[in-house]
Amino acid sequence: MRTLIYDTPAEDAVFLEGEVRSPEITQETPVAFRVPIIRTNGVINIEATVALVHEMEDRMDEDIAENPSLARVPMDPPDL
User: Fold this and answer.
1) How far apart are CA 50 and CA 80, in angstroms?
2) Between the CA of residue 41 and those of 38, 44, 47, what are the distances in Å?
3) Nearest-angstrom CA–CA distance, 34 and 48
4) Among 42, 47, 48, 73, which Cα is nearest to 60's?
5) Nearest CA to 72 among 35, 20, 33, 25?
6) Where are the beta strands (DSSP E) in the chain?
7) How does pLDDT run across 34-74, given as a tens digit for each residue?
């Protein structure tokens, strides 16, 4: 289960920024996100904006599953 940590954006904010936390993320540094805020009739639509972050994370998870070298986790360098 993924958790998004972010502060409530100001009414004039352009981006939603925060961190993604999940038991699957094993790196020590936080995984940051920054996405454009979605507005509906000029009003911040936080639910749609958060859904965008989850969609992006889902796609990254799929890419990592297909190609583990894309993983955002520390990897031991290969022996040369």
Assistant:
1) 43
2) 10, 9, 14
3) 14
4) 73
5) 25
6) 3-6, 15-21, 31-36, 39-40, 43-44
7) 999 999 999 999 999 999 999 998 898 888 888 877 775 55
pLDDT score of 79: 65
CA distance 80 to 77: 9
Q: Tokens in use for 15?
A: 């981006």
- For residue 76, give the DSSP letter: P
Judged by DSSP in three states, 13 sits in: coil
Query: Which pTM does this prediction carry?
Result: 0.77
User: How many Å apart are CA 72 and CA 63, to the nearest integer?
Assistant: 11
Q: How many CB atoms lie within 10 A of CB 20?
A: 20
Q: Identify the DSSP state of 11.
A: T
